[in-house]
Amino acid sequence: MFSARWRHTWIEAASGLLYPPHCAGCRKAVSGRLAGLCRDCRRGRIRLDGPRCTVCGQPYGGAVSGTFRCMNCGDRELAFEFATAAYRSRGVVRDLIHRFKYHRKLHLRHLLARMLCEGFRDGRIKADPPDAMVPVPLHPARQREREFNQAEVLAALAGARLGLPVIDGLRRTRYTLTQTHFHREERFGNLEGAFVARHGAVAGRRLALVDDVLTTGSTADACARELREAGASAVVVITVARG
Ligand SMILES: [Zn+2]
Ligand SMILES: [Zn+2]
Known about the structure:
This protein is α/β, with parallel strands linked by helices. Helices cover about 40% and strands about 15% of the residues.
């Protein structure tokens, strides 16, 4: 008779032959049992640790002394304090997010949630931590079509890792067209009244609004505005990546 332990090892080895571990980025076979990224893909991710806009996190090519606001944020009254992410949405990072979101590669959620957690290492978050997370909601029709809300899935996993509650604090009431089809002024109009915050859930709390990618910041701004109007004491934005 085989011992239970031996049998377990054998089953693991056999499934390893059937499903050898592959890099989640380039799909190259990798050694080791942990699903994740190979060394090249890990190194290929662009970290956002250089000079960047203190409001929206937009990276800046040159040298910056003191705080810097990009041209896009310069004249805008934004409802969130700042937006942060550990990575740039380029190359392998962008590809992972796309496969997760549009091709339903749900197994990538763990890797992406770990990357979202890295965004919480921002010194400003550590100095003044949020009380809870609120995922950016999808319109019910879009959620039916996609079958999941990527922000909600990632927030749930990150919340469990960080010990932060996740609040269902926002509802999307209007089906909006993809923001990239609009010019800057139109984008804000397109989102007017698109979200409603749940007062009882958010009042008096410092919130981390969570999403997969921050691009123009107008969705995050519209959400943060509603949350503030419903009584949230502050809103910061944390995403897996910055567009
Ligand atoms: Zn790889
Ligand atoms: Zn900015």
